[in-house]
Amino acid sequence: MSLLFKSMALAATALSILGSVDAMSHVTVNGSRLKQSVDGFGFSGAFGTACELKNNVPAADRQIVLDLLFGHAGARFTILRNLFPSASWITIEPTSPGTPDATPTYRWDSDSWCQIWLSQQAMSYGVSTIYGNAWSAPSFMKTNNDESNGGQICGMPGAANCTTGDWRQAYANYLVQYVKNYASSGVPLTHVGALNEPDLDTSYSSMFISPAQAVDFVKILGATLVSNGLTTKVVCCDAEGWNNAKLYTSAIAADATALRYVKVFSGHGYTNPPNSALTGAAGTGRSIWMTEWSKYSEWTAAWDDGSDSSGYTWAQYLYTGFTKSHLNAFVYWYGIDGNTTDNGALMRYQPTGLEVSKRFWALATYSRFARPGGSVVSSTSVNRNLQVLTFKNRDGSTAITVLNAAYSDVTINFTLISVSGTVVHPYLTNEANSIAAQSPIAISGGGFTGVVPPRALIVFNIPKSTTRSSKTTTHSSKTTTHNSKATMHS
């Protein structure tokens, strides 16, 4: 093969990967082919980050943050994940009653590390899904007599013997008391979890619990919730990575009683991302939630800087989670943190002011337009540069999200089946834009044509048609540029 021919072949390969300028692609959306339902998107205010927002951010900026997190011009997040503190200085049961059967003395400060305040703020925006999750039991209930550094609940199968007895029922009572305390403060918890990363032994609040032990305990917790007349749904088991989440999920799915009580299978993305189905989850009718994930590399607010914390990368994670792991919900780690230097939060507040990352805008693109109660629907494309994920909402609207991996514009001819609407409203996110509104596109002949800029995320939002339109003209709209700094909201 000649050198010239090799060069031509390499150039052709590069073009096929990167995409040619304005190359025409085709996407078919079928609104009648429903996949999994959508429960929502959210974050956590655990370990004092709720207090950072409440106490350390000035009132005007605090309102901006809340509007960004929950408001119509922001992410419209719909899930809040709260920590049940277990350290003696802040837990509801700081001292042992002596034996598991003795009457406990609960202490409720109606604050819980400012998470009650954050929950109430979220509820004022319409958030109704609030998940209370324990990282550990109080120290005196555990085999290591420490709320940190792993350990197990005394009395669990296979656990070391405790001289004080079997504390499993007492731990279930403790969790139920947290649910009751939240309710007494006007915050009804919809979900509760007894475990966080049970496959990880850490120097902070933690327990090291096997899948078999998790099965044993969720049956006790579920029965205790029922006996107290509570409808709070049990979530399990928030493993550190997706591969280990499969072990806990399959163990619960194999036990009919445990499965009856557990309504949500959960896992984190740290050691393994959600890029495959949870073993045993199929056919159970249970929701699948990614309940915690972030990257602790150096802080970046960039959209596409090649890092694992860029907005573009997180848009890919979201797409993969919903298409490969069939997620119903995606919950990031912190919503906002103080003057942090890592990427554990979507925003950070520095002495110079608020900085909003493009990770936030990636999540916000999905969260704002894919609403709880809606469904993922079929959308197909043969262009490998396009990651297309489509949602159909209960209000009849359809949101087609498209992430363009090419380094050039891609023109897309959309074919719409069982999609109601007469006009498309595109919103663009890239380095210069944050869900920036673009020129509307008319739907005609069962479809429309749109353009996605290089390395960009666009949602083509189609409101349900309310009136019959007499216009049949097809408009092709090339996306325009709306400048928006990463530190500002649109």
TrEMBL record:
Q: Which UniProt keywords apply?
A: Hydrolase, Signal
Give positions of region: Disordered: 467-490
Any one Gene Ontology molecular-function term assigned to this protein's record = glucosylceramidase activity
- Gene Ontology terms: biological process: glucosylceramide catabolic process
Q: Which residues form a coiled coil?
A: none
Reading the lineage from the top rank, the first entry is Eukaryota
Residue stretches making up the Glycosyl hydrolase family 30 beta sandwich domain: 378-417
Domain Endo-beta-1,6-galactanase-like, first and last residues per copy: 103-245
Pfam families in UniProt: Glyco_hydr_30_2, Glyco_hydro_30C
Q: Which family does it belong to?
A: Belongs to the glycosyl hydrolase 30 family.
What is the name of the protein in this document?
Glycoside hydrolase
Organism of provenance: Jimgerdemannia flammicorona
